[in-house]
C-alpha cells in the first residue's frame, strides 16, 4: 500500500477564484503558511476568470461618480433586490468594506478603467440607483484572475493546481484538512491544515445551460454539507435571462438592458412582445430576476411554444456604435442582423449564479469549527436576487475576511489530532475508484443529473416537476456505488460527482420547501410572494446520510453560525 503524501499548512484555501485568492493573500499577510488548491491552473476554469458582462466588477458606492451615492444607498439597493432574504449584516459588511479594498486590489495590479477626470469609470447596472459598476482590463476576468494568482504566488502562497478536493477531513469535531485527487500524478493527496477556507464557487455541472465553467462543478456545496455545514436557500439559482441560443454559438451573455435601451423588442416564438404590459423605469432598468420572470411567464403561458426568446433588432440601426455591444462576443451577429426586417438574436435563460450556499457569518465562519466559506459557495448575502457587479464585491471582501478569520482561528486552537491512518482511510476509496475499469460512466451520470434539473428544477418549477427530478436523482444516487470513468471521459469529475449530486438534491429539496415565488425563484403552482416567505431561509443539513430540510430565521445567521469562531 503506497503511503499517502501529506502536505502541511496553517490555512488550506480550496479554490483559486477571486474569493480564494483574496483569502490566500490575507492569510499570507497575516504570516500564515497558505496552500491554495484549484481544479485547473489558478487563473483558468473559474467563474472569476470568465467575468464578461461589460467587464463589470464591483459596485462601489461612495466612490467618485455621483456625490449623492452612499454606502447606505448601495445597501438599500442590495437588500431590496434580495426580496427580504438577504442577510442584512452580511450585505452591510460587504458593501461597506469594498471601497477601501479597491485600492489594495489596484496595488496588486488590478487595472480599473479610468474616466477622463482621472477617477474610476463607473457605469449604471440594472437595480443600482447610481452608476457604481467598475470595468477592469485589459482582458476582463482573465486579467483579474491572473493578477490575483500572481499576487498570491508573490506573497508566498503555495499552489496545488490540477487537484480535485474530494473530502473534508475532521477530527474531534473540527476540520483537520482535506483529501483530494491529483489529476496530474493520478494519486490521492492529503493536506493537513489548522483551518480551511472553502472558496469553490458555484455549480457549473448542475445545469446543461450555464455560463459557469465545468471545473467549478459544485462539489463544494456537497463537501460542506457532508462535513456538517448548513446549506441555505439552495433553491435560489439566478438565471441570466438572455444567454445566446444560436446554433453553433457559445451561450454568451447578451446585454438585454443595453439592447432594450437601443430599441430592441423581446418577443416570444409566436411574435408577442414579452414586455408589452411592463411599465419600465428607464433610470433603474430591469433586474435579472425581473427579466427572467417576464420570460418565465411568457413561457408558462405557452408551454408548447419554442422556449427561446427572440430579440428583434429590426428597428435598431446604430448598435455598432454602442461601445458595450461593439465589444461583445456576439457583435458579429448584431452587425449582420440589425436594421434587417424580422432579424434578431435567439436567447434563452441560463443558470448563472448560486444565491444560496453554505451558511456563514460575516467572517465566513460556518457551523463547523475551523471551516470558513467565502465567495459564491457561501449563501445569504444577496437573498433572492443579486445585482450586477455585487458578486465580486462579496468575493473579494468575503475572501479577505475569511482568510484573516481562518488564520486567527488556527492560531487560537491546537491542530486537530489525527492519526496517520485517517488520511489513508480517506485516500483508499479514492485510489480504488480511479482504478475501476467498468461501471456507471460518470459522463452518463452528469447527463442524467443535468437532465433531471433542467426538466424539473429549471427557471419555472412545479411540485410535479420537482417530484420527477427527485426521483431521477434518487436513481442516479443508487447507481453512484458503481461510478467509473473507464474511457477517461470526465475523469475530472469522477470523485467529486457524489458531492455535485448532493448540491443537485439540495436544490430540488429546497425548491419543494419554498411554496412561493420570490426574486429569481419561480413556482408556477405558487406564483406569488408569501409574507412568511421572507421570515426564514430554507436550511438543509445532512442527518444519517439523508438531507433534511429546516428553517433558519433571516437576520439570525450572523450569530447562528459562530461555532466556527
Ligand atoms: C459568465 C459569467 C460572467 C460573470 N460576470 C460577472 C461580473 O461581470 N461581475 C460580477 O460581479 N460577477 C460576475 N459573475 C459572477 C462571478 O464571476 C462569480 O460569482 C465569482 O467569480 C465567483 O468567484 P469565486 O471565487 O467564489 O469562485 P470561482 O471564481 O468560480 O472559483 C472557484 C475555484 O474553486 C476551485 N474548485 C472548485 N471545486 C473544487 C474542488 N472540488 N477542489 C479544488 N478546487 C475546486 C476551482 O478550480 C476554482 O479555482 C459572472 C459569472 C459568470 C458565470
How is this structure best described in words?
- The protein is an alpha/beta fold.
- Among the domains are: 240-350, Succinate dehydrogenase/fumarate reductase flavoprotein, catalytic domain (Flavocytochrome C3, Chain A, domain 1), CATH 3.90.700; 434-529 and 537-543, Fumarate reductase/succinate dehydrogenase flavoprotein-like, C-terminal domain (Methane Monooxygenase Hydroxylase, Chain G, domain 1), CATH 1.20.58.100.
- 34% of the residues lie in helices and 21% in strands.
- The chain has 15 helices and 24 strands.
- It has helices spanning 18-29, 71-81, 88-108, 140-154, 219-227, 256-261, 288-301, 323-326, 331-337, 390-412, 420-435, 442-456, 463-479, 497-513, 557-560, and strands spanning 5-14, 34-37, 56-59, 111-112, 122-123, 133-137, 158-160, 163-171, 174-182, 187-198, 231-232, 237-244, 265-267, 309-312, 344-354, 357-359, 371-373, 378-379, 440-441, 460-461, 483-484, 522-523, 536-543, 546-553.
- The strands form six sheets. Strands 1, 2, 7, 8, 9, 10 and 17 form a seven-stranded mixed sheet that branches. The chain has a five-stranded mixed sheet with strand order 18-16-11-23-24.
- Strand 1, helix 1 (18-29) and strand 2 form a beta-alpha-beta unit.
- The two termini are 38 Å apart.
- Flavin-adenine dinucleotide is lined by residues 14-20, 37-40, 45-48, 50-53, 56-57, 163-165, 180, 199-201, 211-212, 215-217, 219-220, 253, 352-353, 375-376, 389-392, 395, 496.
